């Protein structure tokens, strides 16, 4: 079946540090890939997406590139801010028998200190 | 543009009772999805409704059910509540089955 694996957390960084959160996936066919962010007490917000190999999704300084050869979709940001502290979820949509279903990774807690 | 809205924000029930959770999608969105976010279990897909019909469901027992109304809003019903049903229930909507899903802030269901 489909699955998403995220790097172990939590991740703690100082403001302006470089961020990488690793995400790898297993899926049949050609899934669409997403990063969602969840701030404390809130639902999930779509951060960025990519729908085919070599696509780069970007938003609010965050980037991720769909790498089919390594089945990865790592999230990066060059300079994090305290306001980036949240839980980050990698997800895939594969369709087929999983129509309508997003498959999520376990989430990575990011804490940024001033 | 208003986002996905869910009600109530919090719901407290006891074992064996029934719970009803409500969701209004973004205007123009016809697909509604329900997910369970239980502590330590991550986000699990529950149900997908489109054009008033249930299109797919996750690996949950039949006591989890729902419906979608003609205005595309949706209800999730959970019967015979168990302690392990305590979770954040998230609703999402999309323009179509292959479009990105946008989430509400969730309903926190607590079972005492």
Please give a structural write-up.
The complex is a heterodimer of chains A (114) and B (112). Chain A is mainly β and 114 residues long. In chain A, 0% of the residues lie in helices and 55% in strands. Chain B is an all-beta fold and 112 residues long. Chain B is 0% helix and 54% strand. Chain B is globular and about 35 Å long. The A-B interface holds A 32, 34, 36, 41-46, 49, 89, 93, 95, 98-107 and B 4, 6, 31, 33, 35, 42-43, 45, 48, 50, 55-56, 58, 90, 92, 97-98, 100-106.
> What gap, in angstroms, lies between the N and C termini of chain A?
41 Å
Proportion of residues in helical segments of chain A: under 10%
Given the structure, what is the number of helices of chain A?
0
User: Please, what is the average pLDDT of chain A?
Assistant: 94
Radius of gyration of chain A, taken over Cα atoms and rounded to an integer in Å:
14 Å
**Shape by Cα distribution of chain B:** globular
> Helices and strands of chain A: which structural class?
mainly beta
Estimated structural class of chain B:
mainly beta
User: What is the percentage of strand-forming residues of chain A?
Assistant: over 45%
């Amino acid at each position: 079946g489909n699955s998403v694996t995220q790097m172990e957390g939590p991740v703690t960084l100082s403001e302006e540090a470089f961020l990488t959160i690793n995400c790898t996936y297993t899926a049949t066919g050609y899934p669409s890939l997403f990063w969602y962010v969840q701030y404390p007490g809130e639902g999930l917000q779509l951060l960025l997406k990519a729908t085919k190999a070599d696509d780069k999704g970007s938003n609010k300084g965050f980037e991720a590139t769909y790498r089919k050869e390594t089945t990865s979709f790592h999230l990066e940001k060059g300079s994090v801010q305290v306001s980036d502290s949240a839980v980050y979820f990698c997800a895939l949509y594969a369709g087929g028998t999983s129509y309508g279903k997003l498959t999520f990774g376990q989430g990575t807690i990011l804490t940024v200190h001033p | 543009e208003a986002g996905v809205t869910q009600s109530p924000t919090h719901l407290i029930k006891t074992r064996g009772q029934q719970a009803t959770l409500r969701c209004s999608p973004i205007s123009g969105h016809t697909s509604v999805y329900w997910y369970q976010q239980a502590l330590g279990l991550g986000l699990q897909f529950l149900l997908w409704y489109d054009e008033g019909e249930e299109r797919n469901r996750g690996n949950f027992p039949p006591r989890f059910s729902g419906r979608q109304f003609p205005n595309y809003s949706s209800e999730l019903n959970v019967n015979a509540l168990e302690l392990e049903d305590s979770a954040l229930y998230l609703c999402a909507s999309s323009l179509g089955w292959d479009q990105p899903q946008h989430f509400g802030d969730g309903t926190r269901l607590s079972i005492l």
